Amino acid sequence: MTIFLKAQEISQYTIKTRRRLHQIPELAFQEFETAKFVIEQLKQMGFEVKEGVGGTGVVALFDSGRPGKTLMLRFDMDGLPVQEDTAHTFTSLCDGRMHACGHDGHMAVGLSLARLLRENPDEINGKVLFVFQPAEEIGQGAKAMIADGLFDFVPVDYALAVHLWAEKPFGWVAIPDGPVMGGSSDLVIDVTGKGGHAAKPDLTIDPLYIASQIIVALQSVVSRSISPSQSAVVSITQMEASDRRNIIANKARMAGTIRWFDNQTRELIEERIESIAKGIAASFGAEAEVLIRESTIPVNNQTYISNICRKKLEDMRVDIEELVVDSHYRTNLSEDFAYIVDRIPGAMLLIGAGQKVDGKIHPHHHPKFDIDEKAMTLAIAALFETIKALT
Fold it and tell me: DSSP assignment, residue 222?
């Protein structure tokens, strides 16, 4: 029997696990009930568990007892501050919180894979380190677990992770070489001018007007400074100025995000943003201060591992006729699994999981977000086959 069929045999466990976790979403570094559930499941399977790694992180080791490589499998745990609007029978029980990014499914994949390994211990060699990570949504969980000794449990050769991907249908899997998810930086620009009464704008240096000119000019950073063969994003998403309709403020603040795939592009973007903001502000007699802070670095897939993943996926066509392996897809969305594969060779698989709610597929972080639960079985099988090949 193939691994995919074995994963199908325990699909009711996988679905039940995902739906229970979906009901108890918790925000970054507050995943106490979630971690408790994960710990209980792992202990019932016979695993020894290390709790509280990096805050609420959970680690468990599967040892085949045979020589081989050691693989780390990372599954994120946190939910989002989103009010669910799906009307599922298993909808979130937590007001204002929701698993709107598939992390409930990721944990169900991890626990199901742990169960399959326990039930089929002769399928692999070496060791598998299961890592259930907090705080992915704020880009801090992986760093917290690493700082708390994640790599001290056992020497790790490779790392793998999956992300259930609502933009694509069941059967689609992306596993490119190199960058698959973008780096992310937070951007804040403060423009300081001269406030006053809105009826006498000639006596002011209006920072809000200047900020608006900067926002328009920033649209040229990607379109005119970045090579068409590269990819990047500069988005301004917030603006703050006066709290009165008839007052021109002394200061205006704008904030947003930068996405990038390599350091050369990142450095060029940062240089152009600072030059544009300060130059425009100075031309009006104002000042601009630019603050850029890294949130995450890009997720880079190691070619050797990606090749093995793709080959193993192609072998699964016998069970999944919809299977499409995409070796070129990448996204500007970010993921802090990047900090793990920055330390050791690894890869992230994006698994198509689009599921309609009210007749439409909704994006990640949307109140109506959902996943096609069949995709979890594909994710389990893809990881299992890759582990077999790598160990």
Answer: I
